[in-house]
Specification:
The protein is an alpha/beta fold. 47% of the residues lie in helices and 16% in strands. It has one domain: 2-enoyl-CoA Hydratase, Chain A, domain 1, CATH 3.90.226. It has a seven-stranded mixed beta sheet with strand order 9-5-3-2-1-10-11, sandwiched between helices. The two termini are 22 Å apart.
C-alpha cells in the first residue's frame, strides 16, 4: 500500500464489503485526516447494498481529495456502481465488473443479499400464478414464508428511487457540468436500470465507456495494475470484509461476498 502511494502520488484506501450504513463510519475512519489537496484512490470490491449509503460514501470521499479514483480489481455491483459513478476516474482492468443498479437487501435467512428487482418479479409471478390457479396458494405461501408486505414495498420504493440516486452520485463529482450529469444519467438509466434482467449481468470497461463513465483502462502488464493485483489477492485470500488505509484497519465477519 505504501509502495503504491509513493509511486502514484496519492492516498490509497481499501473497502471490501457489502455497502450498508456501517460502511460510512468505517470509511470515514480511513479518510478523516486526508488532505483535500491530494488525490484519493479507493480500491473497491463489493456485491452491492444500499444506494443511499453509496451516495453518502462518495460525497464523503470527494470532500477529502482533489480527485477521486475508484479502482475495481474484481467487482463493484449495484450500490458499488452508484458509488464509483461519482468519481473523477474509474480504473478498470480485464477482470473488472460493474453491474445493474438495482438495490440489494440482506436475505432474511442471514445468508448474503437479494436484489429488489428479483423480489418484486417473484412476488408478481406468484400473484399471477395464484390468480390463474387459486389452489396453488398454499404452495406459494410456503415459498414466501420469509417475505412480508413491508419488504415488498421497500423493494418497490428502492427501485423507484434508483434514478435519483444515480443523479446524486454523478453530481457529487464537483467537476461535472449539468450537461454531463444529464447525458451520463440517461445512458446509465437505460443500460443499468431498465435493460438488465439479472443482477449478475456483466458490465465491463467497454460498456462503462459507452455509458460515458470516466474509465481509465489499466494495462494488465503495467506497473499500476500489477501493484493493485498483488494487493487485491491478499484481500481475496483473507476472504472477509475489510476496510484498510494508511493508519487504520478493520476486519469484519463474512457478509455477502
Amino acid at each position: 500500500m505504501r509502495e503504491y502511494e509513493e509511486e502514484f502520488g496519492c492516498r490509497l484506501i481499501v473497502m471490501r464489503d457489502a455497502i450498508f450504513y456501517p460502511s460510512v463510519t468505517y470509511l470515514e475512519e480511513l479518510i478523516w485526516d486526508a488532505d483535500a489537496a491530494h488525490d484519493l484512490h479507493l480500491l473497491l470490491d463489493t456485491p452491492g447494498g444500499d444506494g443511499e449509503t453509496a451516495v453518502r460514501l462518495v460525497r464523503s470521499a470527494q470532500s477529502r481529495c482533489k480527485e477521486l479514483t475508484v479502482i475495481v480489481p474484481n467487482q463493484a455491483k449495484s450500490a458499488g456502481t452508484i458509488l464509483l459513478i461519482g468519481a473523477h476516474h474509474v480504473l478498470m482492468g480485464p477482470t473488472s465488473d460493474l453491474g445493474p443498479v438495482d438495490p440489494q437487501f440482506p436475505d432474511p435467512s442471514g445468508q448474503g443479499l437479494f436484489a429488489a428487482k428479483d423480489l418484486i418479479a417473484a412476488v408478481e409471478s406468484a400473484e399471477a400464478a395464484i390468480a390463474a390457479n387459486p389452489d396453488s396458494y398454499p404452495l406459494y405461501a410456503s415459498l414466501f414464508a420469509d417475505v412480508n408486505a413491508v419488504m415488498v414495498q421497500q423493494a418497490r420504493s428502492a427501485m423507484a428511487r434508483t434514478g435519483d440516486l444515480v443523479r446524486e452520485a454523478l453530481i457529487s463529482n464537483p467537476d461535472r457540468t449539468a450537461e454531463d450529469v444529464e447525458r451520463i444519467s440517461k445512458a446509465l438509466n437505460e443500460q443499468l436500470v431498465e435493460l438488465p434482467r439479472d443482477h449478475g449481468a456483466v458490465f465491463g470497461a467497454e460498456d462503462a465507456e459507452r455509458a460515458g463513465l470516466p474509465v481509465v483502462r489499466a494495462d494488465p502488464t503495467g506497473r499500476q495494475w500489477r501493484l493493485i493485483w498483488r494487493l487485491w489477492t491478499k484481500y481475496f485470500v483473507l476472504d472477509r470484509p475489510v476496510y484498510e488505509g494508511r493508519y487504520a484497519s478493520k476486519e469484519l465477519p463474512q457478509l455477502g461476498l
